[in-house]
Amino acid sequence: MDITGLTPLERRIWQAFPRGVATDVRRDESEDPATIQGAERTVRAEVIRALLLGGSSEADEAPALRITGASITGVLDLQHAEIRHPIRLTSCHFQHSLELDGTQTRQLDLTGSYLPALAATSLRIDGALRLTNCRIAGSVQLSNAEISSGIFLDHAHIGTGGGWALQLDHASVGADVWAPGLVALGGIRLSTAHVEGAVDLEDAQVKNANGDALDAARLTVGTVLNAGGLTTEGRVRLTGAKVAGWISFIEAKLSNPGGVALGISSCEATQLTLRDAQPVSGDVKMHYASFKVIEAAPQVWPATVRLEGLTYEALTPRLPAADRLTLLQRDADGFVPHSYEQLAASYRRVGDDADSRAVQLAKQRRRRATLPWYARLWGYLQDATVGYGFRPTRAGGWLLALLLLGSVVYGMHHPLPAEHGKGPEFNAPIYTLDLLLPIIDFGQQRAFTPTGVYQWLSYLLIAVGWVLATTVAAGITRTLSRQ
């Protein structure tokens, strides 16, 4: 490029480039880049391109492009270029989109700048990409990008209100994706991306009511996914995501009425927390997700959930089983036995055998509703008498009641001796115990023979005694095995 055609500002930048000296033309630090005007602050995109692709320097110099507060006219097209110098265009006003598809460079810093759009598919940066406090009216396209030292989007405003505001799908980031306070008018796409550090969306706002607010399907995160305070309109999708640490939706507000607000099917993480989050507005899908700990109050969950295959080791905060069972009853797939087994196991794991039995009993009652009428009748009988075997004290109560009944009836109507002149003296309570307890033999049952209705009563006591005694024995065995 002919250096004689440069404006004073462009000449100043041209001379500063070989030594990496910054050129700051701001009037003050609080200036809004979108309002930058005047020819004295204008730099042509072709000048910047010429510098980056062919600017000269001496052997002992460290060239770098550092411009602050300028208005850049024309399309800065660096597609597929290999740039060996750091680029720092901060608090600048780009009048046209920045084209960086396939570009390779050492560092790109656009902090505080205004851009119509950023097209950087397959961008390669050895250092960091900084978009802190940027305002980007259109989309940021970083699909298939490789960024070694992290992406900084904190407090940036991006998107037009439809489609994807930020695309990072299939990207590889060697450090963090740092985006607290981000405002995205459109969805964020992180599907199949690999982030070695953390993804931080704390207090971000993402609005894409007609689609996905956050599509992070099959995302891999090396440490944590922090979405504390995140506000979304649209679906949050973490299907198949793998996070080495925890996934946080602390104080988040997730909203997608009439659709799925949170989809985390087949997701894996150490912990999922929705502590102090607003009640989710929309459905929650957790099919075959796996966590060690899930932290959420019951009121966080919506009216419709899907829990088939969900696995976890513990739930916090610690609550009685009755407070957790309501969620299982709202499963859109109906009765899911696995969900009850998981909840029961979580209580058993912490030594709470009573709540574990309460969950198992609730499981049998829920299953009963799916059975034919005759099986339901048998279920009601089991429930009333022994609580499906999970209420051994109830069985003990029935045994005591039947013992009193038999003692009174047979005390008033002694059965005849099996052999006159032989056998022990009749004792009504012991005789009744002999009928009720299938294993213990006091010698009374063999020694006496009731007749008529009293014989039928003895048959009933024997049959019921088998069921009740077995239930009590099973309950004792479970208690001892827990100890």
Give a topology summary.
Layout: H1 8-16, E1 23-24, E2 42-44, H2 45-54, E3 65-68, E4 71-73, E5 76-77, E6 87-90, E7 93-94, E8 98-99, E9 104-105, E10 108-109, E11 114-115, E12 118-119, E13 124-125, E14 129-130, E15 135-136, E16 140-141, E17 146-147, E18 151-152, E19 157-158, E20 164-167, E21 172-173, E22 177-178, E23 183-185, E24 187-189, E25 194-195, E26 199-200, E27 205-215, E28 220-221, E29 225-226, E30 231-237, E31 242-248, E32 253-263, E33 268-273, E34 281-285, E35 290-295, E36 305-306, E37 314-316, H3 321-329, H4 337-349, H5 353-368, H6 373-386, H7 392-412, E38 416-417, H8 428-436, H9 444-447, E39 448-449, H10 453-482
Helix pairs in contact: 3-4, 3-5, 4-5, 5-6, 7-8, 7-10
Summed up:
The chain has 483 residues and is an alpha/beta fold. Helix content is 28%, strand content 27%. The strands form four sheets. It has a 19-stranded parallel sheet that branches.
Features:
single chain; 483 residues; 2 domains; 15-stranded parallel β-sheet; 28% helix
Helix content: 25-40%
Please work out how many helical segments DSSP would assign.
10
Round the mean pLDDT to the nearest integer and report it.
89
Largest sheet: 19 strands, parallel
Number of DSSP strand runs: 39
- From the alpha carbons, calculate the radius of gyration and give it in angstroms: 37 Å
Protein name: Membrane-associated oxidoreductase
Keywords: Membrane, Transmembrane, Transmembrane helix
